[in-house]
Specification:
With 304 residues, the protein is α+β, with helices and mostly antiparallel strands. It is built from 8 helices and 8 strands. This is GTP cyclohydrolase FolE2.
């Protein structure tokens, strides 16, 4: 004999009689496929899934239904805004008996992209980019938001100016008694003393969020990341040899930026091509024990 299993989420009434904005699960592990540049890449994702619970008397939602629906994302088909929109509709339909009218899914994963060295031919390495995708449907309005993180180097313009002044003063002092200086003497002095003072620089991170059309077949992550890195000019490198390290030093020296500069560069670059861009940048200062930060485009929070 098979006894009917109790389901108190259906048979019992909620004691508080309060409607809830969101109810669901957080941190579901899933293998997903992401289509970038025509190639499917497998990623380990963590997924949050929620629906609203507007009926105050309903004790609880059906977690197993949400889990099964979210699990369908790992069927091998690539992740896309269109698939997420379909999933949200299914989540709401599965909870009609709870009165649900809204649903949302949050997906977090790291996207690995192979990056070539700046100079050395044939040399490359993998770089990881944190990605957060949030798909939401409230009543009949569906939205998809994409956030990516990009690490880069930032060299302080003020520190560079102060360093140049010290080098200039040392140079003048070294040749104060000479009426003329040959190029060879200048070169010799610079080789030994050009780093008498060096500007401070640090690893930095830009977080960018954009709204993405819900009907598109791809997330377009690589193109978004490339545009951010191009705007900043000094993305961190993977495999390097001395020639590549020298080229990176040159990029930093010719691309000085405050945290304000970085935020404005990324915001301007994205505003021309994406919907509702928002930017948060953080420079992990080597001069101070605290960080320098900037926001643009009403970026809420500090990201992750």
């Amino acid at each position: 004999m098979h006894a009917t299993l109790p389901d108190i989420s259906v048979t019992d009434t909620a004691p508080g009689q309060i409607s809830l904005d969101w109810v669901g699960m957080q941190g579901i592990d899933l293998p997903l496929s992401v289509d970038e540049d025509g190639r499917c890449r497998d990623v380990h994702a963590r997924v949050d899934a929620h629906v609203d619970l507007p009926l105050a008397h309903v004790k609880g939602i059906h977690m197993s239904r949400l889990y099964a629906l979210v699990g369908s994302l790992s069927d091998g088909e690539s992740l896309s805004p269109k698939r997420l929109s379909t999933l949200l509709d299914a989540m709401i339909d599965s909870h009609r008996d709870c009165g649900s009218r809204s649903a949302r899914v949050r997906i977090a994963f790291d996207l690995l992209i192979r990056r070539p060295a700046l100079v050395t031919e044939g040399l490359s390495g993998w770089k990881s980019y944190p990605v957060h995708v949030t798909a939401t449907k409230v009543e009949r309005l569906s939205t998809v938001e994409i956030q990516v993180g990009v690490d880069y180097a930032s060299t302080c313009p003020c520190s560079a100016a102060l360093s140049r002044q010290l080098v200039e003063q040392a140079f003048r002092q070294a040749f104060v008694e000479q009426e003329a200086v040959t190029p060879a003497q200048v070169g010799d002095w610079l080789r030994d003393h050009a780093t008498l003072a060096t500007p401070h620089s640090q690893r930095s991170r830009a977080l960018a969020r954009v709204d993405w059309p819900t009907h598109t077949p791809s997330l377009g992550l690589t193109a978004l990341i490339d545009r951010i890195e191009h705007a900043l000019g000094t993305p961190v490198q993977t495999a390097v040899k001395r020639a590549d390290e020298q080229a990176f030093a040159a990029l930093n020296g010719q691309n000085l930026m405050f945290v304000e500069d970085a935020a404005r560069r990324v915001q301007s670059a994205l505003a021309e091509h994406y919907l509702n861009p928002r930017v948060h940048v953080r420079h992990e200062e080597s001069l101070h024990p605290h960080d320098a930060v900037a926001w643009a485009g009403a970026f809420e929070g500090e990201g992750s």
